[in-house]
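ARCHIVE CARD
CATEGORY: sequence design from structure
SOURCE FIELD: tokenized fold
FIELD CONTENT:
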């Protein structure tokens, strides 16, 4: 999904440049039809710039979500490691208690 937004952003940037170049090439001798084309091009540029801004915003939101998820994952992995060490310690203690109980049974 992130790649799609980057591709869209790149497309919008290229299209905006193309339209700006077309506008600059216009020069003198502009006819009525040319004025409407220029107007449409400017409108298209504005739309593309708005879409570019929206795509940039969406990319940032996705990157923020990824960062948040990575932080949660790291925290969960740390918690898992702590719990695993605690479980190992409890298993050692359990074995020791079982051994002590067996020793006590033999003494009776």
């Amino acid at each position: 999904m992130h790649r799609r937004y980057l591709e869209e952003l790149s497309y919008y940037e290229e299209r905006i440049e193309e339209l700006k170049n077309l506008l600059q090439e216009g020069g003198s001798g502009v006819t009525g039809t040319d004025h409407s084309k220029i107007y449409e091009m400017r409108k298209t540029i504005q739309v593309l710039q708005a879409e570019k801004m929206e795509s940039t915003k969406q990319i940032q939101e996705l990157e923020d979500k990824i960062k948040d998820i990575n932080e949660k994952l790291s925290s969960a992995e740390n918690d898992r490691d702590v719990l695993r060490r605690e479980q190992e310690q409890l298993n050692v203690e359990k074995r020791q208690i079982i051994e002590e109980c067996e020793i006590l049974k033999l003494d009776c």
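CARD ANNOTATION: The chain is about 95% helix and 0% strand. The chain has one domain: 2-107.
SHELF: design records, drawer C
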